[in-house]
Amino acid sequence: MPAINEPISHLSLSTSKDWREQAGHYRLIGSKCSNCGEMYFPQRWACPKCHSNQLEEYHLKPIGEVITSSIIYGVKEETNPMLQAVIKLQDGPIIAAEIIDANTELEPGSKVEMTLRKTGRNSIGAYLYAYKFRPLGAVSNNCDVQ
C-alpha cells in the first residue's frame, strides 16, 4: 500500500484494486503460526498461544458453523433488524458476522458460507462491500459478488 505522502505518480493505477486486495476486507485472510499451527482472523503479527512472531498469511475457507446467533434491532424497536452470529470457521478461528438470507435465528451447528454484499457507497460514489454469511446452500435474490 502506498504511503500517505507518496507522490501521486507512484500510486497504483487502480486504488480500488488495492483496497479490494487488502487482507480481510473481501476475503478471509488470516494468519497461521509456523511454530504451533494456530490460525487467527484477522491477521496477527505475533501468536498469543506460543508468542512466536513466525506467522504466515493464510486464506481461510469461507465455510463455518454457527455457535450462537441473535437478532439485533436498531435504535427504534423492530426497525432494521439484523441477524448476527458467532461463527467457528472450518479452519478454526471464531468470528462475529452478519447472517443474511435467513428469517430467524440459526440453531447452533448450522452450516454457513461467506458471501460479499454491497453495503453502500463511499464519499466519491464507489460501492462498498462487506463479507457476510448465509445458510449453506441458501438461494438469494440479491446479487453475490464472486
What report would you give on this structure?
The protein folds into two domains: 28-60; 62-134, OB fold (Dihydrolipoamide Acetyltransferase, E2P), CATH 2.40.50. 4% of the residues lie in helices and 38% in strands. It is built from one helix and eight strands; from the N terminus they run αββββββββ. The chain has one helix at 15-20, and strands at residues 29-33, 39-40, 55-59, 63-72, 82-89, 94-99, 111-121, 127-135. The strands form two sheets. A five-stranded antiparallel sheet has the order 6-5-4-7-8, with no helix packed on it. A three-stranded antiparallel sheet has the order 2-1-3, with no helix packed on it.
Key traits:
4% helix, 146 residues, single chain, three-stranded antiparallel sheet, five-stranded antiparallel sheet, OB fold (Dihydrolipoamide Acetyltransferase, E2P)
Could you provide a short overview of the structure?
Helix content is 4%, strand content 38%. It has 146 residues and is mainly beta. The protein folds into two domains: 28-60; 62-134, OB fold (Dihydrolipoamide Acetyltransferase, E2P) (Beta Barrel).
List the topology elements.
Layout: H1 15-20, E1 29-33, E2 39-40, E3 55-59, E4 63-72, E5 82-89, E6 94-99, E7 111-121, E8 127-135
Antiparallel strand pairs: 1-2, 1-3, 4-5, 4-7, 5-6, 7-8
- The tally of domains stands at 2
* Highest CATH level, the class of the largest domain: Mainly Beta
State the separation between the terminal residues, measured CA to CA: 23 Å
User: What is the beta-strand fraction?
Assistant: 35-45%
- CATH topology name of the largest domain: OB fold (Dihydrolipoamide Acetyltransferase, E2P)
Number of helices: 1
Tertiary shape:
globular
The SSE order reads HEEEEEEEE
What is the averaged pLDDT score?
Answer: 81
User: Uncertain runs with pLDDT below 50, 5 residues or more?
Assistant: 1-13
| Category from helices, strands and their pairing | mainly beta
**Strand element count:** 8
Summarize the biggest pleated sheet.
5 strands, antiparallel
**What percent of residues adopt helix (DSSP H or I)?**
under 10%
Strand order of the largest sheet: 6-5-4-7-8
Task: Output the radius of gyration.
Answer: 18 Å
Secondary-structure arrangement, i.e. CATH architecture of the largest domain: Beta Barrel
